[in-house]
TrEMBL record:
Organism classification: Eukaryota, Metazoa, Chordata, Craniata, Vertebrata
WD repeat residue numbers: 43-75, 86-129, 540-569, 570-611
Region called Disordered, residue ranges: 650-671
Organism for this UniProt entry: Eudromia elegans
Alphabetical keyword list: Repeat, WD repeat
Name listed for the protein in its UniProt record: WDTC1 protein
SUPFAM superfamilies: TPR-like, WD40 repeat-like
Pfam families listed in its UniProt record: TPR_11, WD40
Amino acid sequence: MAKVNITRDIIHRQIKERGALGFERHYHVTDPFIRRLGLEAELQGHSGCVNCLEWNEKGDLLASGSDDQHTIVWDPLHHKKLLSMHTGHTANIFSVKFLPHSGDRILITGAADSKVHVHDLTVKETIHMFGDHTNRVKRIATAPMWPNTFWSAAEDGLIRQYDLRENSKRSEVLIDLTEYCGELVEAKCLTVNPQDNNYLAVGANEPFVRLYDIRMIHNHRKSMKQSPSAGVHTFCDRQKPLPDGAAQYYVAGHLPVKLPDYNNRLRVLVATYVTFSPDGTELLVNMGGEQVYLFDLTYKQRPYTFLLPKKCHTSGEVQNGKTSTNGVSNGIHLHSNGFRLSEGRGHVSPQVELPPYLERIKQQANEAFACQQWTQAIQLYSRAIQKAPNNAMLYGNRAAAYMKRKWDGDHYDALRDCLKAISLNPCHLKAHFRLARCLFELKYVAEALECLDDFKGKFPEQAHSSACDALDRDINAALFSKTDNAEDKKGGGPIRLRATGRKASISEDEMVLRERSYDYKFRYCGHCNTTTDIKEANFFGSNAQYIVSGSDDGSFFIWEKETTNLVRVLQGDESIVNCLQPHPSYCFLATSGIDPVIRLWNPRPESETLNGRVVVDMEGASQANQRRMNADPLEVMLLNMGYRITGLTSGGAGGSDDEDSSEGQVQCRPS
């Protein structure tokens, strides 16, 4: 952590009133606070799993909802229960929200009985009961700009909007996902942008996360009602449920092509939680069955694998976040049937020498790589990349570490790093080669062959190396194999967009929206999210400096946002941590899960004895979670019952790929 002069900042805060907010945001959550985070108290009062938590705007009240169908309002700063009431629900409560500008008097709950209830806490009564959904209600969302309005997401595939000013006790359908994805789609989570309440993000039981413009949807429906020809349709005329431009999709670029494999292994991809950063420019998604992803809503980029399917791209399109006006993007020629390495050696960007402290970090990373400590090497390279984002060698080295570790999504991150290294240094030989290997591992076999052929043409002295020959054999064997994956690739249309293994009806509009999806910026690994579909991930800190997520192993994980490095793991539940809600202005965290208690966490005094809830072996916990995510569902069930399964294969420490082992080490050394 960089040194700061806190005394000077305190003086400025006292002299300049307008500097108080900046001071609070800067020192809200800091690295020393995170490293001293420990358990302060447990709030007891529920008799079932605590499925949802919600702070009020001031941060002096905390509401909770539980399987016991009760909601409790707490004074968390004094560890007191202020109010407990039965909500009238007949099943588990999954969501609880304070209605903005109601003086913390109105509380909204959604539950597994398909109902949404509105409660007046001053009289402990339920004042509205909405029963319009036909399946479990998973999330409620509110918006300060609309103090009498709120939204619900349910497993009937509907997003409903409620206005408490109207006398009607019914709601209206804002978004019907079944019109796009068929009747099997389930809405799992939603959230409203805190800076622009016109934007609503929705997660469902699939890898695509949707961002909607509420204002455009309402204006479209008003114009439809006012149009004199609104009720007249021809066979060629089709009324779109949403106007063009009202929806934008986001997806981790490697996930859609992985769906057939995941479905075959009964591994479900579902967005269990979505939330915006405090400034509204980023979207965080906890993807069940996978990792936590952060999407940049300002500097968007297309998924890197989206340049691969045929008939998808032309010159002038945005590729990898940059517009290509001549068919070249990041040193790679984009063709209708894939891409080709730029001809000739090109211009080599001069590599700026790393300052001594970064050179030391790089050497530490190289040593970790040589000892096959892949995660440690990745974290060290990431730390150096944060300080030197234009150094091709660091990206190339980190790509090699990703390829060796082989956790879920690692080959796609390696592909991204290879492309970045090539954009910075078009003559980065090993980045070119590893690009072909990544394409092969990601099941883009034909594209991998084309990439390898181009590599041989650009670097003829490497054309007959053992690594090249081995990859060539692998690619050709895969091309002539009769596996199901090969047959899928030969089918019409890109595999990443088709419905897979389900009787889902994907509309043409849905196909277009998926084709226009944007990729993630950061990925956070280590936790496990396969057992529950309400597991949260959140920004921690007013400036969103950290990411926190619950896990199936009973721990919660904390990462640095910018480096994606795991910095803290704490045991938060005897079984599973589902909920993590940071305090709006203090370094204070509320968590809950299967245990019928709420746990409060804050930085503990330096004089306090060792925190017994700290998971010291973070690497071991992360590897165990990778094995858990890739285990057979029966084995996971046995693990949950307390049996130890010794036959699970490791997701990270497996053998190297077909490059010789010395090559992996040499590539870490300076050119």
